[in-house]
Amino acid sequence: MILTPLHLCLLLSSALFCIGLIGALSRSSSILVLLGVELMLNAANLNFIAFWRYGPNPAAGTGVLFVLFSIAVAAAEAAVGLALVIAIYRHQRSIRLQDARRLKG
Amino acid sequence: MTGLLIIALVTLVPAAVAMALRNVIHSALLLILSWAGIAAFYFWAGAEFLAFSQVLVYVGAISMVVLFAVLLTRHTRTDGGVAPDTLGRALAGLLIGGAVLGVLFGAVLSTPLPIGSKPAAAVTVHGLGVELMERHTIALLVVGVLLTVALLGAVVLAASDSRSGPEDAR
Amino acid sequence: MLGSGLLQGLKVTAKNIAGSFHDPERLVTVEYPEQKTKLPENYRNFPFLVSENATDPMGTLRCVACQICEKECPPQCIYIEKSKDKKPDAAGKMQVYPAVFDIDTSVCMSCQICVEVCPFEAIKMDQVFEIATTDRFNALLLDRNQLAKPNSYYHQIHPTEAAEVDGRLLAERKAAEEKAKAAAAAAAAKAAAAAAAPKPVATPTATAGAPGAVAATVSVAKPATPPAAAPVSATPPAAAPAASPAQNAPASDGKAAP
Amino acid sequence: MSNSGLEFPAPVGGSHVAAVHDPFHGDLLEVSMGPHHPSTHGVFRMMVTLDGETIVKLKPVFGYLHRNHEKLGENTSYLASMPYTDRLDYLNSMTNNWAYALAVEKLAGQPVPERAEYLRVILAELTRLLNHVCLAGFLLQDTGASGTPLMYAFREREKILDLFESLSGSRMMCNYQRFGGCRVDASPEWLAGAKHITDNFGRFLDEYEELITGNEILMARTQGVGALSPELAISAGITGPMLRATGVDYDLRKVDAYGVYSRFNFRVPLGDHGDTYDRYMIRVLEMRESITILQQALRDLPAGPIMDPKAKIRGFRPKAGEAYGRIEGPKGEIGFYLISDGSPNPYRYRVRPPSFVNLTVLEDMCLGQTIADAVIILGSVDIVLGEVDR
Amino acid sequence: MNAMPGIFAAATGADSLLERWPILFRDTVAGFFPAPLQWLVGSLISILAIVAIFGGVFAALTLLERKMLGRVQNRPGPNRTGPFGLLQPIADGIKMLTKEDIVPRSADHLLHFLAPVALLAFSILTFAVIPFGRNLVPLELDAAVLYFFAAGAATELAIFMAGWASRNKFSLLAAMRALAQLISYELPLLLSFVPIIMLAGTLSMTGIIDQQAGWNFGFIPKWYIFTPWGFAAFAIFLVAALAESNRSPFDLPEAESELIAGHLTEYSGFKYALFFMAEYFGMIALSGMAITLFLGGWRAPLPFLEFIPSYLWFGAKLLGLLLLFIWIRGTFPRLRMDQLTRLAWKFLVPLALFNLGTAAFWSLTSGWSGPLQLARWGVAIALVVVPFVLLGRGLSRGVAPRTYRFA
After folding, report:
1. Average model confidence (pLDDT) across chain B
2. How far is CA C69 from the centre of its chain?
3. Does B87 contact A at CB distance below 8 Å?
4. Which of E257, E331, E399 is closest, CB to CB, to D219?
5. What phi and psi, each to the nearest 5 degrees, are found at residue D86?
6. Is residue B81 part of a domain?
7. Among C47, D160, D342, E271, which is most exposed with the fewest C-beta within 10 angstroms?
């Protein structure tokens, strides 16, 4: 079989996704978990660009626009997520996820 | 093709190391490098506008927020990280991650994909703008509202109770 | 309106930038090693010892080693050892002189108290301020040879004060001379009365000393002139042989006189 | 003493340097500002506990410049202490000299000739100009104004220092006042120079105020910062411009009317907020009042001797007794308390340093402010470490 | 196109040898190399030229700043090294190079080393898209403006690295301040030039400069600063640029009276010099950006001055802006952290948003002429001034000159 550039891009993005996944699953620091999620999101964005680049109609720019929106959402997610981390830290004096068991602050 | 490989290296290695390090600050800085690598990928793929946006948003903004959060939530300066993760947890993570990786790789490699023939007709900023304002107006508005709400929510969450009184601060 | 104060401030600094190119009031620094400001006459730095003339500074120190300054010096940076012998001073009177006179200028705080308490106008404040050395200890410890400066130098750095001091000294010496004359006259009368005079030494030196002092004050502008030097050089023959055995002689002599 | 009380510094070791955990404030950071710090005005140290940038605790640590001044004074003659007083508040040696001379004159019952009294007023008011202009410069330097206001202030200070130098022989260590008068008489040229400087000082103040007083950044930085209540100021013994900035009308020049101050016509400016801006502005206004005093004094300066002819330089032994001499120094009430046992040295020699007393309320003013404010609050207290540590 | 006459007038200047020699030189040198390498050689020449020229400008600027601050403060400034102190930068450089490089034992050595390097690298990156003269753009990008700010955004990251890696509390506080400052001022900085992009319709620097070609009435250049909204945007940009480049009165991360030297406290020798270099490079780059966006780039202010080569005009404008920065530094006290952020969020951001509206109004009314033109100016000025006054009043609430009573 032939390894096309698209293949390579997809492999890259899936590797990145898995790194993010492993990080998110195995770390207990909520900030690192958040960063892992962020990485997975980025991996998804890579896919959009890869398919836009090698897809049938690169001129449409839909992939780019999708990633643009995705970045915006990721920014919002990061802001809210980290605000949550800080709020949790205020209550629990810890950013370990294991410690944040109570829903009530 | 070598370009792509270098980009993959710059993206994957820091990300992997970042996920393994104990020092959160180092992790964050390495992740910034990884994000920069992703931006390089966008640039390589011909989406330069996206590359700059990625740098601006991730390197310029999200990284700052992350670093801020790390600094604000440290116990003392010395241990940037938190208590060590349990081995079982790490193993479970690795296992699941490995499994997913295997499935994804298998899927990608077993799929015949069209060979990218035509060179990318680079989208101009102007073209993007026109498309954004004409075809995706609603999406743009929604994202704008989302961002505003997220900003307000983040402010409310982060600034919530520290000064309001002793009953909140335990 | 917001920002008006800021603009005003910018205006002032702009005025100063422009002024620094034409207005000496707005470029006030002095390029030190090339330019120097004129030191005011009262400026003081570290003390020095006044000697009557430049050719023989050690022989003509006004200091009589009374040690008042040593006692009064607030940081106690003066160290004096009295001489065992005596030398005639400017007025011709036999005086003790400082065998050792050290000032540690690394300790001295230039307060001028030594000058104020000195009854003999022997210690004055210098104006040399470029005294930085690479040696921390020895170079800053000044001995009497380094400290001694002639009266003419004193006149150079503090003209008005020096003139006043010299005038006062002169007057004092005149008074002393008259007193001595009166005393001599009285002594002479006494001697005449007693019809026996074994000690005519004191009166000649006193009379010889007074003109010398006058000459020294007059010839301030031209140091080490023969007239100034003459009476001084006339004295050493009396002082130089006066070693330790001779030292007690006049004292016992003086005591024996009355 | 202040409400919070002045604590003597505990030995500070490495353990203080760790972050402190406090459930009510989050993570606290203890920062040692000084003794080597650009804006602690000498070797002063503030152990600051920070919540973010907000100060939750401030401990002043001083004594790095302690020179045993008071004990030295008891072991030297009365006159020999005079040059040491120069080194207390080394910006204002003339007023230190005066306060000490006043105490000794009270002790010995020594009268002072009128010309000397006038000269003392002239020199004290020049010193006030010098000190306040320095303060204005340093305060602005503390707010980060790149040295420009400081250099303008120093430009004017230099002129006054030149005056001092040509009169007393030294720019800062004047050692000028004596028991019963002054050391050197002022020549007519000197008086003309003083008049020239006095007349031009107002113009400089106008320019300085144009540069800075209306500056929005300065106002935002100083207004409402480090406010001091009049009650606390009185109970802590605060004096000088700092007290008057809180609105308390207390000026020794009016209260004691020592020397010939009763003959001059001047006003005492009062603040209403007691904050840093008030402390700064009170000083600026005091400078303007000083100018009017100087003009009157230079106009009315009588002829005559500058030293009481009966005054003794050598062998000065006041009769046994005690005396407290105080004047309104530029920083506040500077006083000397002396007990004599009839010997050439004082039995007890005590200084009441305004810098030190004014510093006691530092923590009260700084709590709840940010670390940047602490610097300018300290600047507005106007301390000189030579006087604080003695 | 309304810029056509301007372009024709410029053509006379554009053809002169003076104008074209940098490009000619580059192409000639590159021509000696085989064709595949020409691109590389050309780029290398550009890079070398930028580093050399701006290295020189940096050296001159350190001297200029010290001289000018000296003049502000009634003193001549450095004048001992060489004639008029002109060799001072060289002396400084030698001193910096020969000083011992001290790294605190407990510092994070790698980051401590990386921080100045990264900072300098990021600030040099920003030079890549600035048009220094006609055709003198090192890198012609479609989204050049975005590139510029993406590269610039990374600089505060390096400051954070420096502050955190030093393991000094003052450095750490400085790092926090640097982060807060970046987050606060990125927004007004970006918002301030959005109207420009809106009206120019392009993110390309050359495009923006082309839009500013020509003169109204033959002598008022069509630069964006000469419109009400453009002027307001310029002011906002300038304030935000001061904050972004950590210049006084926004030099909080290195506030010497509070944090000793902030993030620079634990740096010495050459690394310290690198920080300085980066700070000045950042200042130069932001000034260059301001020139491009608001001051017509390399264009001459008057038609008959076109014969002067464009890069000299750029240099003159750059010098003017840098002098303004130094002048401001010599005059103003520093803000406090909370005031700094308040200024950004409560004043500059709303003002920039209002300004966006003003620019939209300006764009919509571009057809108005005659008396309507006057009305257009009036409304636009009102749209700029009224929010400024109102927001300014809100910002300076509780802060006013006081009157004092006398006992």
Report:
1. 76
2. 13
3. no
4. E399
5. -55, -35
6. no
7. D342
Q: Does residue B15 fall inside a structural domain?
A: yes
Work out the mean pLDDT of chain C and round it to a whole number. Answer: 72
Exposed e or buried b for every residue in B75-112, given b needs 16+ CB within 10 A? eebeebbbeebeeeebeebeeebeebbeebeeebeeee
- In chain E, which residues have their Cβ closer than 8 Å to the Cβ of B49? 142-143, 146, 203
C-beta atoms of E71 and C16 within 8 A: yes
CA dist., res. E139 & res. E142, Å (int): 10
pLDDT (average), residues D226-252: 89
User: Which of B25, B48, B59 is facing E153, going by the closest CB pair?
Assistant: B59
Task: From chain E, pick out residues whose CB is under 8 angstroms from the CB of B64.
Answer: 156-157, 160, 179, 182-183
Residues of B in contact with D24 (CB under 8 A): 166, 169
The answer to whether the CB atoms of B157 and A8 lie below 8 A apart is no
Which of B16, B41, B76 is the C-terminal boundary of a domain?
A: B76
Same domain, B133 and B69: no
The whole-number pLDDT of residue D38 equals 78
Where are the domains positioned within chain E? 14-95, 99-346
Question: What pLDDT digit, counting tens, does each position of D348-383 carry?
Answer: 899 998 988 988 888 888 888 888 888 888 888 888
Closest alpha carbon within chain D to C27: D155
Inspect the interface and report whether the beta carbons of B75 and D19 lie closer than 8 Å.
yes
Nearest CA in chain E to D210: E331
Domain ranges of chain A: 5-99
> How far is residue D348's CA from residue C30's CA, in Å, rounded to a whole number?
45
Q: Which of B76, B99, B130 is the last residue of a domain?
A: B76
- How far apart, in Å, do the first and last CA atoms of chain B sit? 58
ipTM: 0.76
* Token pair belonging to E382: 């009102």
Contact E407 D268 (CB under 8 A): yes
Structure-model confidence comparison of residues E371 and E356, the more confident one: E356
Q: Structural domain of residue B40, as residue ranges?
A: 1-76
The answer to whether residue E75 neighbours chain C at the CB level (below 8 Å) is yes
| CA–CA dist D373, D376 (Å, integer) | 5
Instruction: List chain E residues with CB under 8 Å of D273.
Output: 402
- pLDDT grade for D6, boundaries at 50, 70 and 90: very low
Give the whole-angstrom CA distance, residue D314 versus residue D183: 14
Query: What CATH number corresponds to the domain at position B23?
Result: 1.20.120.1200
Q: Which residues of A touch B54 (CB under 8 A)?
A: 71
Whether A11 has a pLDDT exceeding 60, the answer reads yes
Residue D179: closest CA among D106, D257, D126: D106
**Interchain pair C113, D86: CB under 8 A:** no
At B46 the pLDDT is 78
Q: If you average pLDDT over residues E236-263, what whole number do you get?
A: 82
Chain D neighbours (≥3 Cβ pairs under 8 A) are: B, C, E
Give me the number of domains chain B comprises.
2
Sequence-ordered list of residues with C-beta below 8 angstroms from that of D352, at least 6 positions apart, any chain: D326, D333, D334, D335, D336, D337
CA distance C136 to chain D (A): 22
Confidence tier at C239 by pLDDT (50, 70, 90): very low
pLDDT tens string E73-88: 888 888 888 888 888 8
Residue C114 binned pLDDT confidence (cut-offs 50, 70, 90) = confident
> Counting beta carbons within 10 angstroms of the beta carbon of residue C224, is it exposed (0 to 12), middle (13 to 18) or buried (19 or more)?
middle
Nearest residue to D246 via CA among D261, D255, D264, D233: D233
**Mean pLDDT for the stretch of residues C146-161:** 84
- Per-residue pLDDT tens digits for E369-404: 778 888 888 888 888 888 888 888 888 787 888 888
In a domain, B32, yes or no: yes
* CB-based burial label for E194 (10 Å; 0-12, 13-18, 19+): middle
Any domain includes B59: yes
**C-beta of residue B55 within 8 angstroms of C-beta of residue E151:** yes
